[in-house]
């Protein structure tokens, strides 16, 4: 299936989920993450949920990271350059919603991409090889290409993988793992 068709399909599937299903599935994903061998790492990049898109609620993951005393990094997106700036989440971090309904830090302590050990990656769809489909702007592919080679890339999805994404390109960066409410996929 082509990316544009997968985007449409999975946006529709997400919209069919009730608020309770979204919450239950998000909690199951967070609990399944505990079995991953990543907890010796320090800097974790976490996306903040776009509720209007019915994304995986990352609040549960945020609580796990905070409970394990990890350094949490959040991003601010520049839609002109398609680049993200990364900030350390602290008690003083102030957020505002941008025009795309994404909560972003107003400012803070910048974290270079080379410090980040693991990235929780938003997605709409993915396949059995770890290729992913996002919203199509390329923010995460660009960001992940700037990270260290050993950064752990973890997709989060309510759904199981597609067999294949037909129009994967050379700039697309594959996931190492994808976690669903039922399964932990390892693509390494």
Describe this structure in words.
A seven-stranded mixed beta sheet has the order 3-2-1-6-9-10-11, with helices on both faces. Strands 4-5 form a two-stranded antiparallel sheet. It is α/β, with parallel strands linked by helices. The longest helix is centred in the first third of the chain and has 15 residues, at 19-33. The protein has four helices and eleven strands.
Number of helices: 4
The best one-word shape is globular
**Stretches with pLDDT under 50, minimum 5 residues:** none
- Name the strands of the widest sheet in spatial order: 3-2-1-6-9-10-11
Structure classification: alpha/beta
Total strands: 11
What is the end-to-end distance?
23 Å
- Proportion of residues in extended strands: 15-25%
Helix and strand run = HHEHEEEEEEEHEEE
Mind describing the biggest β-sheet?
7 strands, mixed
Round the mean pLDDT to the nearest integer and report it.
Answer: 95
Features:
single chain, 188 residues, alpha/beta, seven-stranded mixed beta sheet, two-stranded antiparallel ribbon, 11 strands
């Amino acid at each position: 299936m082509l990316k544009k068709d997968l985007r449409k399909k999975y946006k529709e599937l997400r919209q069919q989920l009730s608020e309770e299903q979204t919450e239950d599935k998000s909690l199951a994903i967070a609990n399944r993450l505990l079995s991953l061998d990543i907890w010796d790492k320090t800097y974790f990049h976490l996306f903040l949920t776009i509720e209007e898109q019915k994304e995986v609620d990352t609040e549960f993951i945020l609580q796990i990271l905070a409970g394990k005393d990890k350094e949490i990094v959040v991003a601010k997106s520049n839609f002109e350059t398609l680049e993200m700036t990364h900030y350390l989440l602290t008690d003083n971090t102030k957020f505002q919603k941008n025009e795309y309904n994404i909560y972003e830090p107003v400012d803070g302590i910048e974290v270079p991409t080379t410090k980040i050990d693991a990235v929780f990656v938003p997605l709409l769809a993915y396949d059995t090889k770890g290729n992913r489909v996002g919203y199509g702007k390329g923010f995460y592919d660009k960001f992940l290409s700037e990270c260290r080679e050993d950064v752990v890339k973890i997709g989060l999805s309510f759904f199981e993988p597609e067999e294949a994404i037909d129009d994967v390109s050379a700039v697309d960066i594959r996931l190492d793992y994808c976690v669903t409410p039922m399964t932990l996929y390892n693509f390494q």
